[in-house]
């Protein structure tokens, strides 16, 4: 039995109050996520995991964010944040899943023992955990369960209240770096706004203000937080009109709004009437994703997704690095299989920037991006950021320009490192980055869009009896199971010009995702439908047959 400071009696008691339902839990793309009414036991166990993780890291502060991001309002979930603000180290996912599925108190205590033994955890340390949550109605009850777990584990914990996911990541990093040479910022919400707004003002200095942007906040936590941020910015410098800011009316969160809706449906969200020439963007429910869009003169909707943002950011940073005379700093881009084929061609062919591919999930992209001096990573769904290595940060900080132009570029690069939330994708920070670039280039969305033309693409979801039977390889671009299915997909794809399609189980929703792209819209839709039908037939589809 466990020797640790964890209070066994409290764990047993908490397990009585938070019984584990008959559900197979799995640590997904971004933590545990499902219908909120099944998550009570998970939250108390996550409290214990967060405490153990902190103990393992000598009491460093760990973050817990209660949110289901882009999912419907009735879902909820939890994301764990490691000390530097990145996602929980992947090697902890297996045992976390085991703990999540442990039912009786003895099994729970024995899994805790295994974690202590496996990671050689020093139980004399004190655990420190901070937590925050989004606007979902299920959050207060889940916060209480989390607190039971944290208390049972003897952790010191702080409730940071309503926050966006990236704000919580920011806070974790600030707390852990406070007082060091790498201090990331003031560990308060105000500190976050001050850091971003000061950098933004530096970058916008002397530039003519662009027309007001419309920001769809998906009726989520991004709305009050963006309103708060606006207080730090003179509206003559930059202004935003917030749409979908109703966080009170039940059922509105992410409903026909937000980054995921706009990306998947390829149309404007509810409440946004597009005027040609204006700029629009959408956050998702916890404000860690961003997509832009606009209407052309004919009123046709155009999407500028994570791929377009990656291209824009890489182009701008590469130019700045060159102008500043610090071109020893290398820039790389990280994408996933969902990246549009045209975007990869643009990055490698025109920008001549190296591109690496990893599996879906910020946790994968983030670590790959760390391999570059400046790693730009974006998923097509709008989730991403830019990472500057410690060496790059040092070069930017200490270099002295030989000309005024070089000095200006160095100042701007320095401000960019402050503007960009380097802990995780952050819709607010990413939006400010895009706004800076468009302002510097005097570009409209349409001009930005001209970098390359997306191949028509389609994302579909197929609900099947058991999505875990879909196993992939090659950065999730090919299926290895069910056997033979990949060959059948290849046969279908070969009938379409520039066709590409792949299939993978979602790690945040109970569905299999189907991606398709091809030379024309008609071909793309036909390809997506054919592959979705195949998945439905071979995977034991549930409910009505797929339609596009
Ligand atoms: C999370 C992850 C993202 C991922 C998305 C969809 O985003 O952080 O990296 O792209 O889920 O994942 P899947 O296709 O496995 O469902 P979010 O914004 O929902 O937290």
TrEMBL record:
Binding-site list for Mg(2+): 69, 284, 286, 288
Transmembrane segments: none
Active site (record annotation): 69 (phosphoserine intermediate)
Catalytic activity: N-acetyl-alpha-D-glucosamine 1-phosphate = N-acetyl-D-glucosamine 6-phosphate
Keywords: Carbohydrate metabolism, Isomerase, Magnesium, Metal-binding, Phosphoprotein
Domain Alpha-D-phosphohexomutase C-terminal: 479-533
Entry-linked InterPro entries: A-D-PHexomutase_a/b/a-I, A-D-PHexomutase_a/b/a-I/II/III, A-D-PHexomutase_C, A-D-PHexomutase_C_sf, A-D-PHexomutase_CS, AMG1_II, AMG1_III, PAGM
Cofactor details (free text): Binds 1 Mg(2+) ion per subunit.
Transferase in keyword set: no
GO molecular function, one term: magnesium ion binding
Family assignment from sequence similarity: Belongs to the phosphohexose mutase family.
Function: Catalyzes the conversion of GlcNAc-6-P into GlcNAc-1-P during the synthesis of uridine diphosphate/UDP-GlcNAc, which is a biosynthetic precursor of chitin and also supplies the amino sugars for N-linked oligosaccharides of glycoproteins.
PANTHER family given in the database record: PHOSPHOACETYLGLUCOSAMINE MUTASE
Protein name (Swiss-Prot/TrEMBL): Phosphoacetylglucosamine mutase
